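To the wet lab folks,

You asked to see what we're planning to order before we commit. Fair enough. Below is the target structure as C-alpha coordinates, and below that is the sequence we designed to fit it. If anything looks off to you, flag it before the synthesis order goes out.
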Protein backbone atom coordinates (compact mmCIF):
# COMPACT_ATOMS: atom_id res chain seq x y z
CA UNK A 1 0.00 0.00 0.00
CA UNK A 2 1.45 3.34 -1.07
CA UNK A 3 1.45 6.23 1.40
CA UNK A 4 0.60 9.58 -0.15
CA UNK A 5 2.08 12.10 2.27
CA UNK A 6 3.75 15.28 1.15
CA UNK A 7 5.97 16.90 3.79
CA UNK A 8 8.15 20.03 4.12
CA UNK A 9 11.13 17.76 3.58
CA UNK A 10 9.74 16.73 0.17
CA UNK A 11 9.02 20.37 -0.66
CA UNK A 12 12.61 21.32 0.25
CA UNK A 13 13.97 18.55 -1.97
CA UNK A 14 11.74 19.76 -4.82
CA UNK A 15 13.16 23.28 -4.48
CA UNK A 16 16.67 21.84 -4.79
CA UNK A 17 15.59 19.89 -7.88
CA UNK A 18 14.12 23.03 -9.47
CA UNK A 19 17.35 24.94 -8.75
CA UNK A 20 19.27 22.15 -10.52
CA UNK A 21 16.93 22.23 -13.54
CA UNK A 22 17.50 25.99 -13.83
CA UNK A 23 21.28 25.42 -13.82
CA UNK A 24 20.78 22.82 -16.57
CA UNK A 25 19.00 25.44 -18.70
CA UNK A 26 15.25 25.05 -18.06
CA UNK A 27 13.61 28.49 -18.03
CA UNK A 28 9.84 28.04 -18.61
CA UNK A 29 8.22 29.35 -15.37
CA UNK A 30 5.12 27.13 -15.77
CA UNK A 31 7.26 24.00 -16.08
CA UNK A 32 9.43 24.95 -13.10
CA UNK A 33 6.34 25.77 -11.00
CA UNK A 34 4.72 22.43 -11.87
CA UNK A 35 7.86 20.50 -10.86
CA UNK A 36 8.16 22.53 -7.64
CA UNK A 37 4.58 21.62 -6.65
CA UNK A 38 4.14 18.07 -7.91
CA UNK A 39 4.92 15.28 -5.37
CA UNK A 40 7.10 13.09 -7.63
CA UNK A 41 7.52 10.57 -4.79
CA UNK A 42 3.82 9.62 -5.25
CA UNK A 43 4.69 8.38 -8.76
CA UNK A 44 7.47 6.00 -7.67
CA UNK A 45 7.38 2.66 -5.87
CA UNK A 46 7.81 3.16 -2.07
CA UNK A 47 11.37 1.77 -2.15
CA UNK A 48 12.50 4.75 -4.22
CA UNK A 49 10.82 7.46 -2.13
CA UNK A 50 14.07 8.80 -0.70
CA UNK A 51 15.47 9.15 -4.24
CA UNK A 52 12.41 10.75 -5.84
CA UNK A 53 13.94 14.21 -6.14
CA UNK A 54 17.20 13.08 -7.70
CA UNK A 55 17.40 14.04 -11.35
CA UNK A 56 17.18 10.42 -12.46
CA UNK A 57 14.86 7.98 -14.21
CA UNK A 58 13.59 5.10 -12.00
CA UNK A 59 11.90 1.76 -12.69
CA UNK A 60 8.09 1.72 -12.39
CA UNK A 61 7.47 -1.94 -13.33
CA UNK A 62 6.80 -3.72 -16.67
CA UNK A 63 10.44 -2.90 -17.60
CA UNK A 64 9.49 0.78 -17.93
CA UNK A 65 10.68 3.97 -16.24
CA UNK A 66 9.49 7.31 -14.98
CA UNK A 67 11.53 9.80 -17.03
CA UNK A 68 14.27 11.93 -15.48
CA UNK A 69 12.83 15.29 -14.29
CA UNK A 70 15.22 17.14 -16.65
CA UNK A 71 13.85 15.15 -19.60
CA UNK A 72 10.23 15.88 -18.57
CA UNK A 73 11.05 19.59 -18.20
CA UNK A 74 12.97 19.66 -21.51
CA UNK A 75 10.19 18.02 -23.53
CA UNK A 76 7.48 20.14 -21.90
CA UNK A 77 9.43 23.35 -22.56
CA UNK A 78 9.83 22.38 -26.25
CA UNK A 79 6.07 21.79 -26.50
CA UNK A 80 5.42 25.46 -25.64
CA UNK A 81 1.99 24.76 -24.07
CA UNK A 82 -0.64 27.50 -24.27
CA UNK A 83 -3.57 27.44 -21.80
CA UNK A 84 -6.32 25.12 -23.04
CA UNK A 85 -4.08 23.33 -25.56
CA UNK A 86 -5.26 19.83 -26.37
CA UNK A 87 -2.26 17.53 -25.87
CA UNK A 88 -1.79 13.87 -26.80
CA UNK A 89 0.84 12.04 -24.76
CA UNK A 90 2.15 8.67 -25.98
CA UNK A 91 3.41 6.65 -22.99
CA UNK A 92 1.51 7.49 -19.78
CA UNK A 93 3.93 5.41 -17.69
CA UNK A 94 3.72 6.69 -14.10
CA UNK A 95 1.47 9.64 -15.05
CA UNK A 96 4.06 12.22 -13.93
CA UNK A 97 4.50 13.86 -17.35
CA UNK A 98 0.72 14.00 -17.81
CA UNK A 99 0.44 15.78 -14.44
CA UNK A 100 3.07 18.35 -15.47
CA UNK A 101 1.15 19.00 -18.71
CA UNK A 102 -2.11 19.49 -16.80
CA UNK A 103 -0.40 21.89 -14.40
CA UNK A 104 0.86 23.88 -17.39
CA UNK A 105 -2.76 24.44 -18.46
CA UNK A 106 -3.20 21.66 -21.04
CA UNK A 107 -6.09 19.26 -21.56
CA UNK A 108 -4.40 15.87 -21.78
CA UNK A 109 -5.17 12.65 -23.65
CA UNK A 110 -2.59 10.07 -22.65
CA UNK A 111 -2.18 6.54 -24.01
CA UNK A 112 -0.20 3.63 -22.52
CA UNK A 113 0.31 0.11 -23.88
CA UNK A 114 0.62 -1.51 -20.41
CA UNK A 115 -2.77 -1.64 -18.64
CA UNK A 116 -1.08 -2.24 -15.27
CA UNK A 117 0.84 1.05 -15.54
CA UNK A 118 -2.21 2.98 -16.69
CA UNK A 119 -4.28 1.60 -13.78
CA UNK A 120 -1.58 2.62 -11.31
CA UNK A 121 -1.27 6.06 -12.92
CA UNK A 122 -5.01 6.63 -12.32
CA UNK A 123 -4.57 5.93 -8.60
CA UNK A 124 -1.47 8.10 -8.31
CA UNK A 125 -2.96 11.03 -10.20
CA UNK A 126 -6.08 10.99 -8.01
CA UNK A 127 -3.83 11.44 -4.99
CA UNK A 128 -1.49 13.98 -6.58
CA UNK A 129 -3.85 16.44 -8.26
CA UNK A 130 -7.02 18.36 -7.35
CA UNK A 131 -10.29 17.28 -9.02
CA UNK A 132 -10.53 20.38 -11.24
CA UNK A 133 -7.17 19.61 -12.88
CA UNK A 134 -7.99 15.90 -13.16
CA UNK A 135 -11.14 16.73 -15.08
CA UNK A 136 -8.86 17.76 -17.98
CA UNK A 137 -7.29 14.28 -18.23
CA UNK A 138 -8.38 11.22 -20.23
CA UNK A 139 -6.33 8.01 -20.12
CA UNK A 140 -6.37 5.26 -22.76
CA UNK A 141 -4.80 1.83 -23.18
CA UNK A 142 -3.46 0.85 -26.58
CA UNK A 143 -0.81 1.39 -29.24
CA UNK A 144 -0.01 5.10 -29.26
CA UNK A 145 2.12 4.83 -32.41
CA UNK A 146 -1.21 5.03 -34.25
CA UNK A 147 -2.14 8.13 -32.26
CA UNK A 148 -5.69 8.44 -30.96
CA UNK A 149 -7.79 9.21 -34.00
CA UNK A 150 -11.15 9.45 -32.22
CA UNK A 151 -10.07 12.49 -30.22
CA UNK A 152 -7.89 14.18 -32.92
CA UNK A 153 -6.79 16.77 -33.88
CA UNK A 154 -4.31 17.88 -31.21
CA UNK A 155 -2.48 21.16 -30.65
CA UNK A 156 0.50 19.29 -29.24
CA UNK A 157 1.75 15.69 -29.26
CA UNK A 158 4.49 14.40 -26.96
CA UNK A 159 6.07 10.97 -27.31
CA UNK A 160 7.82 9.77 -24.13
CA UNK A 161 9.48 6.64 -25.58
CA UNK A 162 12.23 6.34 -28.22
CA UNK A 163 10.93 5.93 -31.78
CA UNK A 164 12.71 4.46 -34.84
CA UNK A 165 11.19 7.27 -36.96
CA UNK A 166 8.40 9.84 -36.81
CA UNK A 167 5.03 8.04 -37.16
CA UNK A 168 3.03 9.64 -40.00
CA UNK A 169 -0.18 8.89 -38.08
CA UNK A 170 0.89 11.38 -35.41
CA UNK A 171 1.61 14.15 -37.91
CA UNK A 172 -1.81 13.57 -39.47
CA UNK A 173 -3.47 14.11 -36.07
CA UNK A 174 -1.87 17.53 -35.44
CA UNK A 175 -3.64 20.82 -36.18
CA UNK A 176 -1.93 23.23 -38.60
CA UNK A 177 0.52 25.13 -36.40
CA UNK A 178 0.63 22.16 -34.00
CA UNK A 179 3.84 20.81 -32.46
CA UNK A 180 5.11 17.22 -32.07
CA UNK A 181 8.03 16.50 -29.71
CA UNK A 182 9.52 13.02 -30.15
CA UNK A 183 12.84 11.30 -29.33
CA UNK A 184 14.12 9.43 -32.42
CA UNK A 185 16.96 6.90 -32.66
CA UNK A 186 18.10 3.42 -31.67
CA UNK A 187 20.91 3.44 -29.03
CA UNK A 188 20.52 7.12 -28.17
CA UNK A 189 17.62 9.29 -29.25
CA UNK A 190 17.81 12.78 -30.68
CA UNK A 191 15.00 15.05 -29.44
CA UNK A 192 13.07 16.23 -32.49
CA UNK A 193 10.49 19.01 -32.63
CA UNK A 194 8.21 19.12 -35.64
CA UNK A 195 5.88 22.02 -36.36
CA UNK A 196 3.09 21.34 -38.85
CA UNK A 197 3.30 24.45 -41.02
CA UNK A 198 0.57 23.42 -43.50
CA UNK A 199 -1.21 20.22 -44.54
CA UNK A 200 1.89 19.42 -46.68
CA UNK A 201 4.80 21.19 -44.98
CA UNK A 202 6.57 20.60 -41.71
CA UNK A 203 9.45 22.37 -39.96
CA UNK A 204 11.91 20.03 -38.22
CA UNK A 205 14.26 21.11 -35.41
CA UNK A 206 16.86 18.87 -33.76
CA UNK A 207 17.88 19.18 -30.11
CA UNK A 208 19.95 17.14 -27.60
CA UNK A 209 20.45 13.38 -27.24
CA UNK A 210 18.59 11.34 -24.58
CA UNK A 211 18.08 7.72 -23.53
CA UNK A 212 14.50 6.44 -23.60
CA UNK A 213 12.82 3.05 -23.33
CA UNK A 214 11.63 1.94 -26.80
CA UNK A 215 8.36 3.00 -28.42
CA UNK A 216 6.87 -0.40 -29.27
CA UNK A 217 4.03 -0.78 -31.75
CA UNK A 218 2.79 -0.80 -35.32
CA UNK A 219 4.65 2.40 -36.23
CA UNK A 220 7.42 1.91 -33.68
CA UNK A 221 9.85 -0.85 -32.75
CA UNK A 222 8.55 -4.40 -33.14
CA UNK A 223 8.39 -6.58 -29.97
N1 LIG B 1 5.59 9.76 -19.48
C1 LIG B 1 5.99 8.73 -18.57
C2 LIG B 1 6.06 9.19 -17.15
O1 LIG B 1 5.89 10.39 -16.90
O2 LIG B 1 6.26 8.35 -16.27
C3 LIG B 1 7.30 8.13 -19.02
C4 LIG B 1 7.11 6.75 -19.41
S1 LIG B 1 8.33 5.73 -20.03
C5 LIG B 1 9.77 6.63 -20.31
C6 LIG B 1 7.63 5.43 -21.66
C7 LIG B 1 6.30 4.74 -21.65
O3 LIG B 1 5.88 4.56 -22.99
C8 LIG B 1 6.29 3.36 -21.01
O4 LIG B 1 5.35 3.32 -19.98
C9 LIG B 1 5.90 2.43 -22.17
O5 LIG B 1 5.13 1.32 -21.77
C10 LIG B 1 5.13 3.37 -23.06
N2 LIG B 1 5.01 2.96 -24.45
C11 LIG B 1 5.95 2.41 -25.27
N3 LIG B 1 5.42 2.18 -26.49
C12 LIG B 1 4.13 2.60 -26.45
C13 LIG B 1 3.06 2.64 -27.40
N4 LIG B 1 3.20 2.20 -28.65
N5 LIG B 1 1.87 3.14 -27.00
C14 LIG B 1 1.69 3.58 -25.74
N6 LIG B 1 2.66 3.58 -24.79
C15 LIG B 1 3.87 3.09 -25.15
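Sequence we intend to order:
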Amino acid sequence: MHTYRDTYKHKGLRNQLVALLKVKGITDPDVLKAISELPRHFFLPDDFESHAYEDKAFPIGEDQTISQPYTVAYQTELLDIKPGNKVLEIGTGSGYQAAVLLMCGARVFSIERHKKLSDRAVRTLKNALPADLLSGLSLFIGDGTRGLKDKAPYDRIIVTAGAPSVPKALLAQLVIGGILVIPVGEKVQRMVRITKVSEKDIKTELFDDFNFVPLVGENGWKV
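Structural context that might help your review: The longest helix spans residues 8-23. The chain has a mean pLDDT of 97.

Thanks,
Computational group
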